[in-house]
Sequence to fold (949 residues):
Amino acid sequence: MSGASLLKETGPREVFCGLTSIVWLHRRMPDAFFLVVGSRTCAHLIQSAAGVMIFAEPRFGTAILEERDLAGLADAHEELDRVVKNLLTRRPEIRTLFLVGSCPSEVIKIDLARAAERLNSQFNGKVTILNYSGSGIETTFTQGEDGALKAFVPLMPSSDKKQLLLVGTLANAVEDRLITIFKRLGIENVDSFPPRQSTELPSIGPETKVLLTQPYLTDTARVLKDRGAEILPAPFPLGVEGSRLWIEAAAKSFNVDQSLVTSTLEPLILRARKALKPYIEKLTGKKLFLLPESQLEIPLARFLHMECGMELLEIGTPYLNRDMMKPELDLLPDKTRIVEGQHVEKQLDRVRKNQPDLVVCGMGLANPLEAEGFSTKWSIEMVFSPIHGIDQASDLAELFSRPLHRHDLLNTKQLTST
Amino acid sequence: MELTLWTYEGPPHIGAMRIASSMKGVHYVLHAPQGDTYADLLFTMIERRGQRPPVTYTTFQARDLGGDTAELVKGHIREAVDRFKPEALLVGESCTAELIQDQPGSLAKGMGYEIPIISLELPAYSKKENWGAAETFYQLVRGLLKDSPKSESEHNPSKWKTEGRRPRVNLLGPSLLGFRCRDDVLEVQKILAHHGIDINVVAPLGAAPADIIRINEADANICLYPEIAESTCIWLERNFGHPYTKTIPIGVGATNDFLNEIHQLLGMELPKQEEEDGSQSRLTWYSKSVDSNYLTGKRVFIFGDGTHVLAASRIAHKELGFEVVGLGTYSREMARKVRDAAKELGLEALITNDYLAVEEAIKESAPELVLGTQMERHSAKRLGIPCAVISTPMHVQDVPARYSPQMGWEGANVIFDDWVHPLMMGLEEHLIGMFRHDFEFTDGHQSHLGHLGGHSTEKETKAPSFYQEKVQSSRPEHFPHWTPEGESELAKIPFFVRGKVRKNTEKYANQIGCKEIDGETLLDAKAHFNA
Fold:
């Protein structure tokens, strides 16, 4: 491990809960539905996080607990059965239904695993009913995806086929591109998880090599390992270098000839570096402060430092899985300040004291920081944007240079007009 | 359990946050798990505020539940008071904290602070956002005024005359995340100033606890948003004898009535000419102008919060000459008033939380304009019907940069523009009517009605979505069938009435037991309904 300084902080936090993952998961698998068993707050949260109300019929909803549900648990189970039946009658196209646990459902101990089991036998294979927790008392923001994928793992068929499995939700175009590159390297059996249709689960077994595409899949990685799969240690595929090392980890494991790897990746790398150039000019030497939110903070900081020359003031992360992050931590410069957990007020004090040029933060904090004169970038944008892979490196850098560019644009205009 | 896809209102503690964030010098310690902090973005993103809401969340975790959560709450209260030095502290809990019963309000009160501490009990599993806001405002006002001398029998709203000063009133109810509150306050202030009435306190928006304490220095109260301020106004009336206005000045007629009411309350004479010309708003003339002829009898469907739908139905009916074909609200607290208003129009009010039920009702009543919330805007878009947004829940679109009140004279102007523009503008629609056989105006013509180009539900019914399947399957089996010739005749009808003609023709065919609709049936039906 590098000489990064690791600090733990506790206090008031300003981080989304795991329910928010539904916002991208429901788009990934159009035949799945996410039913939060929770409160009006949960419903309001997902609605607000989804931001614009653009969906005719969203593929998520909330079974809102009411006073009479709190009276007795048996009642709550009957109610849940009724809601699920109504929902499935209304939406016959649903193939997988996730019952998503929330803070209130966990505090009053509604056993969603048992509910899923019971409903599964009732629907007898027509719909698969799974459960996981997205509650704020158990999970942060992106951990919801970890929970959903983990719930899928027992359903994955076994296979002894030698194959590569990409784990974590990616934009379709990015995923296609990565698969194309692996095929050029002669790795033919490449599958991804979660699948684009919830019913088409990839297989898993002792000959499955797993590359994680997202850093927040700790539990999923563990249960995949339990099914015999091998998790290939690598940095995450963000930026040119991260993506190269990530692809090479697979290549090595599949015994791909190094010269083929070099000849395949070299042109992509050259092109990507060329595309990165204008953004590097913008970003280099600028001070970066990352507040904890998506778990992508460490790989992003690594890319922005290594390849774009940014100075790292602080990397906040909601929690740190040292094993999984080791390849990333190894690439960070000595004495990088990593803060696990959060005390949002103290952290904002440090932002003010350190005067970064760019702050990566959650949506609730962005405008107040802008009002104080800081340029900001929303963490949530990273989980929606196609940023993975060598070809996307310049797009990723652009996301961070845009706020700085905008800042300059508006300030220049103000100067000329006065 | 209630299945919700989209909701009109958040939980009650969001209402409390609206009050806290609207005010100065107030801090809210909210016992809530991680994730509930999402609420900050309602203020910083939707309202585009440059400050975080003054809220400290305890963000407890599962592992805290085994330990001493009460100590955790106290720690956060202590830190919040030290850091933010509020003049008054609100303490409450969100839905999950309610279940673990730490009673943070009592904990806070036991900590020996000098500042007023308002403990909020907002039952998250039975109440909603507006109720939470009203209750918070009421508790806050009550808490801050509890030591003020009560004088309900002595209060005389005309006392300003003998004291040789201008009358003064409080504006109660405007808050953040309320529909156009910021501009409504300015507009109402302007109108009152014009009539020589001073503003004592505006609350909660922009008020500090010190302002609340001098709330009873006013002669009367103006209840601008009953959803938020009615309970407070009633309490002030009972305890201090302050009368309050019941009319909400949205629309020309209501603004006039409002002025009448406040003049009467304060024992003032309303200037004569004001009463006669009735209006300083352009709405009246614009609505009378020949170009507005096309608005005659336009069928309009109204849904939103209580205050805005009541105002909208009056304006639509009395000031724009529309026909109201549907009226409803999600504000259960206002259900009775909305039911009464609907009854007067010969309608049954739709009181519901379910946006799909509203969408069904819109489809059923086949309006030409929908006045609703952002949810209805999306429903209307799917149905190809023009829509204007008149009510919360808030969307970034509802916080415009420009001055855009709903209340008063300028509010009436804004409403005229906002409602009429989504319909085609007068002359343009006349021309389309006159020249509808010209090739320019065939079905490909792009209108103002968005991507559907005014094709109404015709195209929509072909879309292979669940939503459409549901529509079709809900039709009874014996429903009359349109012959190709009937369909082609129907296609000649201008799109903006086509939906209505289709519906009427089917109704007529059903009545006379006709199974197939051709061109003749269509004409028969037209004659039947015109007769």
